[in-house]
Amino acid sequence: MSRGSMQGVIPRRHSRPVQVGGLWIGGDAPIVVQSMTNTDTADFEATLHQIQALAQAGSELVRVTVNTAEAARQVPELRQALDRSGYDVPLVGDFHFNGHKLLSEFPHCARALAKYRINPGNVGQGSRRDEQFARLIELARSYDKPIRIGVNWGSLDPQVMARCMDENARLAEPHPVSWVMRQALVTSALESAAQAVDWGLAPERITLSCKVSGVQDLIAVYRDLARQCDYPLHLGLTEAGLGSKGIVASTAAMAVLLQEGIGDTLRVSLTPEPGGDRTLEVRVAQEILQTQGLRAFTPQVIACPGCGRTTSTYFQSLAQQIEGYLRRQMPLWRHRYPGVEHLQVAVMGCVVNGPGESKLANIGISLPGSGERPVAPVYVDGEKTVTLKGERIAEEFQALVETYVARRYGVGT
C-alpha cells in the first residue's frame, strides 16, 4: 500500500462554481493555486517573463497590478504574447482607487483580463464609493467578467468599520476591537457582494476574500464568512512575511481552514528576498494542498531527517538530487505520464526505518548508515528488487525511477 492511499478525503464546503477563463473555482472543482507578479506591469518583458515562470511552476491564475494607463496598455499585449508562447493561464487584474477609470478608458485591457479583483475599501470614499463601485460592476457585466471582492484589513472601508464600532459600543458587554475588525471585514465582503448582485452581477460571477496577517484572525474570519455565504472563497494570509516565517504562518492558517473544507482557491503571499525566486509562493501553495491530500502536483520525496546513525550526508544529497530531478521533469511528464504526480519516492539513511519506509513508497532506497554494510536495497511497490553498491548508486537509482515512471504511468501501460 502506498503512502498516498493512506490519506482520507476532506469534505469540501459547498460553494457555487465560478468560471474564470478556462478554469472553475468552487463547486466540485479542484482547489486552484494562484500567484501574483511583483513587476511593474508597464514593463512588458519583465512581467511577461515572470508570468511565464509562475505558470511554468504551476500557478493556475496569475494576478497583475493594473494601476496606471501604461500598465493597462500592456495587459492585452501580455495576453497575446502568452497565447503565442503556449501559456493559457488566465490573468486577473488587481484594481485599487482608479479601476473604474482604467477599465472604462482601456477596453482592450478589460477584455484581455479573465477576472477583476476589487477592494471595496479602495474604490472611493463617501458618495463616490457607491458610484465608482457600481461602475466597476457595470463594466464586469458588460465584458462578462467574474470579480473577486477582496477585503483587506489594511484598507478596510472606514464607514463599515465605524458602523461596526458604533454597534459594538451600544452592547451591554462590548467585544474587543480585534473582534469588531473581524466582523467589519466579513460585513464589508458580504454587503459588497449583495450590492454587486443588486446592480445586476450574477452571484455565479463573484468570489470573496478577507485578507489579514494574523493566523488566528484569518481562521476566525473565514469560518465566519463560510457560515454566512456560498460564494467561493479565496484564501491567503496577507503580508505573511519572509522565508520560513511566511511559509509557516501561511501553512498554519490555511491548513486549518482547508482541513475544515473551507477554501476554493489560495495564494501564499511570501515576501521574496531581493532578486529572489517569485515561484516559491507557487511551490508552497502546491505543497500545502499536496501534503493534506487535497491535490497532487508533483512526485513527493520522503526522506529521513538524519541522526547519529546517519553521519554521512550521502542520503541528503541523493534526496535533494532526486527531488530536483522530479520537479524538472514534471513539465514533460505531466503530459506524457498522466498520474505521475501521485508518485512517492523514499530516500532513507539507515536500516532502522529505511526498509519499512521504502516499502511504503512506490519506489524507495535504503542507504547504509554509520557502520552498516555499504549496500543499498531498492524496493518497488513494496518488494525488494535490487541492491545497489559502489560509486554510481545515485545515477543507478535515478535510472530505476525513470524506468518505473515509464512502466507505471506510460500511456497504454
TrEMBL record:
<feature type="binding site">
    <location>
        <position position="307"/>
    </location>
    <ligand>
        <name>[4Fe-4S] cluster</name>
    </ligand>
</feature>
<keyword id="KW-0408">Iron</keyword>
<dbReference type="InterPro" id="IPR058578">
    <property type="entry name" value="IspG_TIM"/>
</dbReference>
<dbReference type="GO" id="GO:0005506">
    <property type="term" value="F:iron ion binding"/>
</dbReference>
<dbReference type="GO" id="GO:0046429">
    <property type="term" value="F:4-hydroxy-3-methylbut-2-en-1-yl diphosphate synthase activity (ferredoxin)"/>
</dbReference>
<dbReference type="InterPro" id="IPR045854">
    <property type="entry name" value="NO2/SO3_Rdtase_4Fe4S_sf"/>
</dbReference>
<feature type="domain" description="IspG C-terminal">
    <location>
        <begin position="300"/>
        <end position="402"/>
    </location>
</feature>
<keyword id="KW-0004">4Fe-4S</keyword>
<comment type="pathway">
    <text>Isoprenoid biosynthesis; isopentenyl diphosphate biosynthesis via DXP pathway; isopentenyl diphosphate from 1-deoxy-D-xylulose 5-phosphate: step 5/6.</text>
</comment>
<dbReference type="InterPro" id="IPR058579">
    <property type="entry name" value="IspG_C"/>
</dbReference>
<protein>
    <recommendedName>
        <fullName>4-hydroxy-3-methylbut-2-en-1-yl diphosphate synthase (flavodoxin)</fullName>
        <ecNumber>1.17.7.3</ecNumber>
    </recommendedName>
</protein>
<feature type="domain" description="IspG TIM-barrel">
    <location>
        <begin position="16"/>
        <end position="285"/>
    </location>
</feature>
<feature type="binding site">
    <location>
        <position position="350"/>
    </location>
    <ligand>
        <name>[4Fe-4S] cluster</name>
    </ligand>
</feature>
<keyword id="KW-0560">Oxidoreductase</keyword>
<keyword id="KW-0411">Iron-sulfur</keyword>
<dbReference type="GO" id="GO:0016114">
    <property type="term" value="P:terpenoid biosynthetic process"/>
</dbReference>
<dbReference type="GO" id="GO:0019288">
    <property type="term" value="P:isopentenyl diphosphate biosynthetic process, methylerythritol 4-phosphate pathway"/>
</dbReference>
<dbReference type="InterPro" id="IPR011005">
    <property type="entry name" value="Dihydropteroate_synth-like_sf"/>
</dbReference>
<dbReference type="InterPro" id="IPR016425">
    <property type="entry name" value="IspG_bac"/>
</dbReference>
<dbReference type="InterPro" id="IPR004588">
    <property type="entry name" value="IspG_bac-typ"/>
</dbReference>
<dbReference type="GO" id="GO:0141197">
    <property type="term" value="F:4-hydroxy-3-methylbut-2-enyl-diphosphate synthase activity (flavodoxin)"/>
</dbReference>
<comment type="similarity">
    <text>Belongs to the IspG family.</text>
</comment>
<dbReference type="Pfam" id="PF04551">
    <property type="entry name" value="GcpE"/>
</dbReference>
<feature type="binding site">
    <location>
        <position position="357"/>
    </location>
    <ligand>
        <name>[4Fe-4S] cluster</name>
    </ligand>
</feature>
<dbReference type="Pfam" id="PF26540">
    <property type="entry name" value="GcpE_C"/>
</dbReference>
<keyword id="KW-0414">Isoprene biosynthesis</keyword>
<dbReference type="GO" id="GO:0051539">
    <property type="term" value="F:4 iron, 4 sulfur cluster binding"/>
</dbReference>
<feature type="binding site">
    <location>
        <position position="304"/>
    </location>
    <ligand>
        <name>[4Fe-4S] cluster</name>
    </ligand>
</feature>
<comment type="function">
    <text>Converts 2C-methyl-D-erythritol 2,4-cyclodiphosphate (ME-2,4cPP) into 1-hydroxy-2-methyl-2-(E)-butenyl 4-diphosphate.</text>
</comment>
<keyword id="KW-0479">Metal-binding</keyword>
